[in-house]
């Protein structure tokens, strides 16, 4: 281990050369700090630049042990056959996988976190400019080939969408792996309803733990054993050096400038990209990857959709091979056939075993858009609208009501976006709709899936605050309504309102004998037999009393079906080839 005159620590570890605490000068005169893992040999290498608030020096096996232990339990292969995991940091590419293949991994502490001093504000535009500066710095280093790639999970993916819209000259390709795009709709306020639990109890706590200058942090530098949050500062200054995410979300109930500043302009994203989403990423890690793929102007773009947990998917051998083939083509210029890869690579979920399949467009051109009409009297879903009107009423804060289809006579696949048109009323002065799509086996038991956020995920979910029912006709499609979320419309007790609800996309095969079910409720979906936090809606809950006072959102909710109030689901049925 050597320490240079500028404070950079240099470590030679066989094939890997580690440069630790390297300063990156920013356009505003400040600096952020990074670790560089690059091949320990002469040559020019493409940098993969990662921007993280979780600590470039944190050790995933120690500081994120409660999550990482599940990864190792289910997928021990992520730390064998070429990796020991000793350089792994939360949601960052594994240097032991990439560096021997001729890549440099540059891990940057976001301003205000880890070793980088300053004020931290989640996903801010200033932070995006810092990422731009880091990309341009990496693109001109003496060891760099000038073609920069981006790769990382969640926050590290969201920042990719944002910075790509700034069009850094040295940015050559990006892989946003499970990361939101639309800040309002994908995370903060699903259908206008505040998803506060994650932000209040988990996010602010996690960032405070890794805040620059926080000497009480349990995070330790894997190289030195010292606290990994830089030099100590006066503890009285710490609260003022970080923006409170929960309070910010509560202050912004609409899709106002706060969110628009953080949501990229898709037409500005022109870099080749591979957007990788998770069908089980309800609440955060699904909609954004599809949305980003759709809205980006890149002429060379691909959408990959997978399953499994949020914490493991990027590190699986097949995933790394896919990422490396993409980067080998765009960062190294290899003629490896990637340019012939169809635009979509989808995992088709099937209770009997998943299947990987390539497709050419989204939504699939051969989709047969199929109406499943709700019948409140019979509690069923059918292909024909009931002739007589009926009403199904449920306690807004209870378990809701569930309607189901007849058993399918043959295997049926649904792959694509989903929507609902519902006629609803309430005894309250506003109404929150929670829609959960489920699959039932021939015995009536629910079939669940390993999700990014819940180990027993349903098919999909959708949400809408009825006072936010206004849609934008120019941006809406029958299978994907687009709500403006820019005004509150009156909701009168007892009055029936026609609303459209976006339900997040899915891919599922319902085998013969299985049934489709929909649960309508006035609060987050929970299974009666679930224990602990994970009850069917994961950690992205909507239970904040400040946003959902009982006197406004309580009472009795009703869905009206049949006759002139024909409520239905619009499902993306895929004909058998």
Helix content: 10-25%
Query: What overall geometry do the principal axes of the alpha carbons give?
Result: globular
Report the radius of gyration as a whole number of Å.
Answer: 24 Å
Largest sheet: 12 strands, mixed
Strand content: 25-35%
Category by helix and strand content:
alpha+beta
Terminal residue distance = 60 Å
Number of strands: 26
Q: Low-confidence stretches at least 5 residues in length (pLDDT < 50)?
A: none
Instruction: Round the mean pLDDT to the nearest integer and report it.
Output: 95
Determine the number of helices (DSSP H or I, runs of at least 4 residues).
Answer: 12
How is the secondary structure organized here?
Elements: E1 2-3, E2 9-13, E3 16-25, E4 31-39, E5 47-52, H1 60-63, H2 65-74, H3 95-98, E6 104-109, H4 125-139, E7 148-153, H5 155-164, E8 171-177, H6 183-188, E9 189-190, E10 193-194, H7 196-209, H8 245-251, H9 257-260, E11 273-278, H10 287-295, E12 301-306, H11 317-330, E13 344-348, E14 355-359, E15 368-375, E16 380-382, E17 390-395, E18 401-405, E19 412-426, E20 432-440, E21 446-447, E22 460-465, E23 497-510, E24 515-521, H12 550-553, E25 556-561, E26 568-574
Parallel strand pairs: 5-6, 7-8, 8-11, 11-12, 12-13, 16-18
Antiparallel strand pairs: 1-2, 2-3, 3-4, 4-6, 9-10, 13-14, 15-16, 15-26, 17-25, 18-24, 19-23, 19-25, 19-26, 20-21, 20-22, 20-24
Helix pairs in contact: 4-5, 7-8
């Amino acid at each position: 281990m050597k320490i240079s005159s500028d404070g950079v620590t240099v470590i030679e570890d066989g094939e890997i050369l580690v440069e630790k605490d390297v300063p990156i000068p920013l356009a505003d005169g400040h600096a952020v700090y990074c670790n560089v893992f690059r091949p320990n040999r002469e040559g020019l290498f493409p940098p993969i630049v990662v921007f993280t608030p979780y600590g470039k020096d944190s050790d995933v096996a120690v500081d994120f042990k409660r999550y990482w232990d599940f990864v190792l339990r289910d997928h021990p292969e992520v730390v064998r056959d070429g990796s020991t995991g000793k350089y792994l940091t939360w949601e960052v590419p594994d240097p032991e996988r990439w560096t021997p293949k001729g890549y440099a991994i540059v891990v940057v502490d976001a301003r205000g976190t880890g070793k980088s001093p300053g004020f931290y504000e989640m996903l801010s535009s200033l932070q995006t400019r810092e990422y731009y500066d880091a990309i341009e710095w990496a693109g001109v280093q003496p060891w760099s080939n000038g073609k920069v790639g981006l790769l990382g999970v969640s926050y590290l993916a969201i920042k990719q969408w944002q910075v790509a819209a700034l069009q850094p000259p040295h940015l050559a390709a990006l892989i946003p792996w499970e990361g939101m795009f639309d800040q309002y709709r994908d995370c903060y306020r699903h259908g206008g309803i505040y998803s506060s639990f994650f932000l209040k109890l988990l996010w602010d706590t996690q960032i405070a733990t890794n805040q620059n200058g926080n000497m009480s942090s349990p995070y330790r530098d894997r190289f030195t054993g010292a606290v990994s949050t830089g030099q100590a500062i006066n503890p009285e200054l710490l609260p003022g050096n970080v923006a409170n995410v929960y309070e910010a979300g509560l202050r912004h109930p609409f899709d106002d400038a706060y969110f628009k500043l953080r949501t990229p302009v898709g037409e500005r994203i022109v870099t080749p990209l591979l957007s990788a989403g998770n069908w089980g990423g309800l609440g955060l890690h699904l909609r954004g990857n599809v949305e980003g793929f759709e809205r980006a102007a890149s002429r060379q773009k691909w959408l990959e959709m997978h399953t499994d947990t949020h914490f493991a998917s990027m590190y699986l051998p097949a995933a790394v091979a896919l990422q490396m083939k993409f980067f080998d083509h765009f960062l190294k210029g290899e003629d490896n056939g990637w340019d012939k890869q169809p635009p979509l690579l989808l995992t088709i979920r099937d209770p009997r075993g998943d299947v990987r399949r390539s497709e050419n467009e989204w939504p699939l051109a051969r989709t047969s858009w199929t109406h499943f009409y709700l019948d409140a009297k019979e509690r069923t879903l059918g292909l024909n609208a009931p002739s007589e009107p009926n009403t199904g009423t449920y306690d807004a804060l209870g378990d809701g009501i569930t309607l189901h289809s007849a058993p399918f006579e043959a295997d049926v696949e649904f792959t694509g976006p989903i929507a609902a048109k519902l006629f609803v009323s309430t005894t309250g002065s506003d109404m929150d709709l929670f829609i959960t799509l489920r699959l039932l086996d021939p015995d009536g038991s629910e079939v669940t899936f390993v999700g990014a956020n819940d180990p027993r995920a349903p098919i999909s979910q959708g949400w809408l605050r009825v006072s936010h029912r206004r849609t934008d006709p120019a941006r809406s499609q029958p299978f994907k309504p687009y709500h403006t979320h820019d005004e509150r419309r009156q909701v009168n007790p007892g009055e029936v309102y026609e609303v459209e609800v976006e339900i997040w996309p899915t891919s599922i095969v319902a085998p013969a004998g299985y049934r489709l079910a929909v649960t309508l409720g006035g609060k987050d979906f929970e299974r009666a037999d679930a224990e602990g936090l994970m009850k069917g809606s994961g950690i992205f809950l909507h239970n904040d009393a400040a946003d959902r006072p009982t006197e406004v959102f309580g009472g009795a909710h009703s869905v009206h079906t049949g006759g002139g109030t024909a409520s239905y689901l619009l499902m993306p049925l895929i004909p058998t080839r």
